[in-house]
Design brief:
Mean pLDDT: 78
Radius of gyration: 44 Å
Structural class: alpha+beta
Number of domains: 3
Shape: rod-shaped
Order of helices and strands: HHHHHHHHHHHEEEEHHEHEEHEEHHEE
Largest sheet: 5 strands, mixed
Length: about 550
C-alpha cells in the first residue's frame, strides 16, 4: 500500500468530500423517488466512509464493522424519507462544523465553512420545505438546486489546496458535534412548532426560531463569562469535567507516590507500569528503556506504540483507539517519561556526588601524605646535618609521625569512616600541633583557653588546614630566609591564625586563592583550595585576613550564623 504524504492526503480528502457533496446534490436534484436516488446515496455513503471523519485516516475497518455499516446503510435506504435525510444532513453539518476551526490553514477553514453553508442551505431551503409539505417553496428549491448550490460547489472546487502545518491535528470533538446537531434539531423542530401553534409562514417561523436561539446563546455566553463565584456556568462545567476520583487521577496520585518511594529508575518503571495496566481501557503493555525491559498483562490486536526519549512503550487496548483517547495516552506516557527521566537524573546526580566525595577525600589524603613526607624530610635533614641534635628530636617526633601514619592508613582503608569527623578537645589538639613543629622555628600563641578547655573541634580538618598553612609558610621561608612565622589560636572563638612578615601575595593570586586551584612553583593553592572546601563542609571559613607587605595572615574561624 502506498503511503500518502501530507499534501497528497489533504488533496485526496478535499476531492473525496467534494465528490460526496456532488452525489448528495444529484440525489436531491433528481428527487428521492427517482430510480437513481438510492444508488447515488449508496455511493455517497461509500465516499463518506472513505473520507472517514470519525476515524483516523490510517485506520482499517474490520469485516464485522464493514458488514454492520453496510447493513445499516441498506436498511436506511430501504425506508428512505425526508426525516431520515434531515437527520443525515444535520449530522454531516455537525461533523464538518466540529472540524472546521481545527485547521490552521486559511483556505482549509474557508472550504469547510462553505461546506457548512451548503449543508445548512440544503437542510433549511430544500429538505425542510419538503418535510413540512410546503408547495409554495417548489420554485425556490428548484432554483436553489439548479443554480445557486451548483455554483457554490464550483467555488469550493476552485479553492486552492493549502498544506497544513506539520503539528496540526484535526481531531473530532464529539461535544461540538453534539452541540451543533442539537442546535439544528432545535431550529427545525422550533420552526415546526411555530408553524403549528401560531399558524405563521415557514420563513417567519424560521426567523423567530433563529432569534430565540440567538438570545439563548447570548444569555448562556453571558452566564459562562459572568463573575458570579461558584454559581457560574464555567465553574460548574470545569468542576464537572475535572472531577476527581477518576482512574487517571488515581494513577497520577500513585505515580507521585512511586516517585517518592523508589530511588532506582527501573524500580520506578516497574511500579508505575503495574499501576498503569489497571486503567480501564488497558489489557497489557511492554516497555523498553536503558534500564531494561518488561511486559505486563496480555497482548491484543489493538496496539499503540509511544516513546519518550529512550523510553519506548507498546500499549495493548481492549478496543480500537480513537484520536481523543490516543491524545490521552500520549499525555500519560509523557508524564511517565518525565518522572522516569527525573529519576535517571537523580541517579546520575547521586553518582556524581559520590565521585566528588571520593575525589575530595583522595585530594585531602594526598595533601596529608605530602605534609607528612615534608615532615619526614625535615627530620631526615636534621639527622644528616646535625646528628647531635637529631636524637632527642627524633625520639619526640617519631611517635607523632607514627600516629599520623596510622591515621592516614585508616583513611585509605575506609575513606568514608568517622575518622574525618572525629572531634577532640581544642587544647589537646594545640599541644599536638606544637610538638609536631617545635623544631621548625615557629612562634606559638594560645589565648583565651587557660590550661584546659572543654571546647571541641574537628581534628582532621584543623590538621589539614594547619599543616597546609604552616608548610606553605615554611616554603616561603626558603625564598625569604629571614621570614618570621607565627601561629596563634583563640580558644574562645575557635579561630586559628597563621601569619608571616614576608612579602604580600600578588593581587591576581590573592583573588583566586581558596576559591579555585592556583598554579604555583611550590604548589600554593591546591591544598588550600581543598582545605577551604573541607572547612565549609564543617561550617568553618578559611580566608586571607590580611595581605600586605610585612603582614600576611590566614584565618580559620567558624562561619557566622
Amino acid at each position: 500500500m502506498t503511503t500518502l504524504n501530507p499534501a497528497q492526503r489533504v488533496r485526496s480528502s478535499r476531492w473525496l468530500s467534494l465528490a460526496m457533496l456532488v452525489l448528495l446534490h444529484a440525489t436531491f436534484w433528481l428527487g428521492i423517488d427517482h430510480l437513481w436516488a438510492r444508488p447515488l446515496l449508496l455511493a455517497h455513503l461509500g465516499l463518506f466512509i472513505i473520507w472517514q471523519p470519525l476515524w483516523r485516516s490510517e485506520t482499517h475497518l474490520s469485516w464485522g464493522n464493514s458488514l454492520f455499516i453496510l447493513g445499516v446503510s441498506l436498511t436506511a435506504l430501504t425506508w428512505l424519507n425526508w426525516w431520515l435525510l434531515a437527520f443525515w444532513v444535520a449530522g454531516l453539518f455537525a461533523l464538518v462544523g466540529a472540524r472546521a476551526f481545527s485547521f490552521y490553514a486559511r483556505w482549509q477553514r474557508i472550504y469547510h465553512l462553505l461546506v457548512m453553508a451548503y449543508l445548512l442551505a440544503v437542510l433549511l431551503l430544500h429538505i425542510t420545505p419538503h418535510l413540512f409539505g410546503l408547495p409554495a417553496f417548489d420554485e425556490v428549491t428548484r432554483n436553489l438546486m439548479t443554480v445557486a448550490l451548483p455554483l457554490m460547489l464550483l467555488v469550493m472546487a476552485l479553492i486552492p489546496v493549502e498544506r497544513e502545518k506539520p503539528d496540526a491535528v484535526q481531531s473530532l470533538d464529539f461535544f461540538y458535534v453534539l452541540l451543533l446537531f442539537t442546535l439544528l434539531t432545535v431550529l427545525v423542530l422550533g420552526t415546526l412548532a411555530f408553524m403549528t401553534l401560531n399558524r405563521v409562514e415557514y420563513l417567519d417561523a424560521l426567523l423567530r426560531t433563529l432569534f430565540l436561539i440567538a438570545v439563548a446563546l447570548f444569555i448562556l455566553g453571558a452566564l459562562w463569562h459572568a463573575d458570579i463565584g461558584p454559581f457560574g456556568l464555567q465553574t460548574s462545567f470545569s468542576r464537572y469535567v475535572l472531577s476527581i476520583g477518576t482512574p487517571l487521577e488515581a494513577w497520577l496520585k500513585q505515580l507521585a507516590e512511586d516517585a517518592q518511594r523508589d530511588n532506582s529508575p527501573r524500580e520506578f518503571l516497574e511500579s508505575a507500569t503495574e499501576h498503569m495496566i489497571e486503567l480501564p481501557w488497558m489489557v497489557g503493555m511492554a516497555w523498553v528503556s536503558a534500564e531494561g525491559h518488561g511486559t505486563l498483562g496480555s497482548a491484543s490486536p489493538h496496539r499503540v506504540e509511544l516513546a519518550d526519549e529512550d523510553l519506548h512503550l507498546t500499549l495493548f487496548t481492549r478496543h480500537s483507539v480513537g484520536p481523543s483517547v490516543l491524545l490521552h495516552m500520549r499525555l500519560l506516557v509523557q508524564v511517565l517519561g518525565n518522572f522516569y527521566q527525573a529519576k535517571r537524573r537523580e541517579q546520575r546526580l547521586r553518582e556524581m556526588t559520590r565521585q566528588q566525595a571520593i575525589y575530595e577525600t583522595g585530594a585531602r589524603l594526598t595533601h596529608d601524605l605530602k605534609n607528612m613526607l615534608q615532615s619526614l624530610f625535615a627530620l631526615a635533614s636534621i639527622a644528616q646535618n646535625e646528628p647531635a641534635k637529631a636524637q632527642p628530636i627524633l625520639q619526640q617526633q617519631l611517635p607523632v609521625l607514627s600516629q599520623r601514619i596510622e591515621t592516614l592508613l585508616s583513611k585509605l582503608k575506609a575513606p568514608t569512616s568517622e575518622t574525618e569527623s572525629r572531634e577532640v578537645e581544642l587544647t589537646a589538639w594545640w599541644e599536638g600541633l606544637c610538638r609536631r613543629y617545635e623544631h621548625r622555628e615557629i612562634e606559638w600563641r594560645l589565648t583565651g583557653g587557660g590550661e584546659r578547655t572543654s571546647v571541641s573541634i574537628p581534628a582532621a580538618m584543623f590538621d589539614c588546614v594547619a599543616d597546609n598553612l604552616i608548610e606553605n609558610a615554611l616554603n616561603k621561608r626558603l625564598r625569604e630566609p629571614a621570614l618570621r612565622i607565627q601561629v596563634s589560636l583563640d580558644a574562645n572563638t575557635r579561630s586559628l591564625h597563621v601569619s608571616d612578615d614576608g612579602s604580600a601575595i600578588p593581587a591576581g593570586y590573592a583573588q583566586k586563592l581558596l576559591r579555585t586551584v592556583v598554579p604555583s612553583e611550590d604548589g600554593l593553592g591546591v591544598g588550600l583550595y581543598q582545605a577551604s572546601r573541607w572547612a565549609q563542609q564543617n561550617h568553618y571559613k578559611l580566608q586571607l585576613q590580611e595581605n600586605q607587605p610585612g603582614k600576611v595572615t590566614f584565618e580559620l574561624a567558624p562561619q557566622q550564623a
